Amino acid sequence: MTQKTTEERLPKVSVIVPAYNAEKYLNKCLDSLMNQTLEEIEAVVVNDGSTDNSKAILEEYEKKYPGKVVVLHKENGGQASARNLALKVCRGEYIGFLDADDFVQPEMFGKLYATAKTQNADYVACGYKDITYRDGKEVVLQEYVASKVATKTKDLFFGALASPFLHLYRREIMERSEVTFPEGYIYEDTAFYLNLIPYLKSIATIEEALAVRLRHSNSTMSTFRKERVRHIFPVLKGSLEYYKARGFFEEYERELEYFCVRVLLCSSMQRISKVGRFRDAWDLVKETLEFVKTEFPEYRKNPYMKSGKLGLYMRSLNRVTAYPVLVLFRFTNKFKREYT
Questions:
Q1: How many domains does the chain have?
Q2: How far are the Cα atoms of 93, 162, 230, 333 from residue 196, in angstroms, in the given order?
Q3: How many angstroms separate the CA atoms of 188 and 169, rounded?
Q4: Same domain, residue pair 214 and 256
Q5: pLDDT per residue over 159-184, tens digit each?
Q6: Separation of alpha carbons 82 and 75, rounded Å
Q7: Is the separation of the CB atoms in 196 and 173 below 8 Å?
Q8: d(Cα 187, Cα 167) in Å, to the nearest integer?
Q9: How far apart (Å, rounded) are the C-alpha atoms in residues 6 and 192?
Q10: Could you report the per-residue pLDDT of 27-56, keeping only the tens digit for each?
Q11: Do 177 and 231 fall into the same domain?
């Protein structure tokens, strides 16, 4: 067999799917991948120690789609360890991600790949929609265009969604960067996304909502425990150390500072507000403010913080103003639970 023939058999896109006790969702997830308009696609599914019927379902798909569904089995170790294992065996020119309880539109990876090739992009992002099911019917909660329309590398620090199910990455870049998902943390997506940014020199965006994320009431309750919410501190600390070790820190210092402070004072604050006991939540707020003070003592002088309501909010947050903010967030959460 010639080298050219061998290369033609390789998939254009590999999609990594970690699966843990996902028997309710696997069929829809995998069917959405096997019915893609892009034929040269493989799904690398990692059974992360499931105790339900997931293993049998995956083995059926592997037999039905030989060479297109690759199943790996491991002891339970979490989503990050499952993805890292899959990264070692992916053969595609580009790599995408999907959670086992989500699915994608038939044209998603075809459009992402075509855009990547046309623009010679290292990274392509698309939009998505959130859905839930009520009385057996699909209900669209909200539809998003791409979280941030980016045209250059530094744009990726501002407003982009870190969740990898919207992204397509050139495999060569991922291998060269040696970036992996930090294991044992709930913010592994944030670290993976952030650490890859300096390597992404050509980027593209599709604003169309091509991915579908399922929201269900008990999907993330465990992430609101105090000890797990604290994971954000070692995760961001690790990324700061990564940028310094790789020689990226000086070039991206202001952008990195903005990204980290925004995560801490915005998305992490929202997660903190969902911690059960108010005292635990307030302790986390104080720890967050102390972390920001230690790692980013001059962040209020960051030029990216000087405009807009969001910048004003972040510049204004301190121990005095953070208390009513936390109370407001918790009240809003309670209102949403009771009236939506």
A1: 2
A2: 17, 11, 23, 33
A3: 17
A4: no
A5: 778 889 999 999 999 999 999 999 99
A6: 9
A7: yes
A8: 17
A9: 31
A10: 999 999 999 999 999 999 999 999 999 999
A11: no
Q: What is the pTM of this model?
A: 0.91
Nearest to 47 by CA among 67, 65, 34, 30: 30
How many Å apart are CA 229 and CA 78, to the nearest integer?
16
Measured distance CA(274)–CA(271) in Å, rounded: 5
Domain that residue 38 falls in: 3-219
Closest alpha carbon to 112 in 98, 99, 126: 126
Domain's final residue, options 219, 252, 282: 219
Phi and psi at residue 43, to the nearest 5°: -105, 120
CA distance 16 to 5: 25
Q: Residue 63 class from Cβ within 10 Å (0-12 exposed, 13-18 middle, 19+ buried)?
A: exposed
Same structural domain, 277 and 211: no
Q: How many Cβ atoms are within 10 Å of 100's Cβ, its own excluded? A: 28
Which residues neighbour 166 within 8 Å (Cβ) at sequence distance 6 or greater?
125, 126, 127, 128, 146, 147, 211
238 lies in the same domain as 162: no
Q: What is the average pLDDT score of the chain?
A: 91
Domain stop point among 219, 245, 264 = 219
Query: Are both 13 and 122 inside the same structural domain?
Result: yes
Which CATH number fits the domain that encloses residue 193?
Answer: 3.90.550.10
Same domain flag for 38 and 171? yes
pLDDT digits (tens, 9 = 90+) for 186-239: 999 999 999 999 999 999 999 899 999 888 654 444 458 899 999 999 999 999
| Same domain assignment for residues 141 and 256 | no
The answer on 236 and 198 residing in a single domain is: no
Tokens of 41: 């696609």
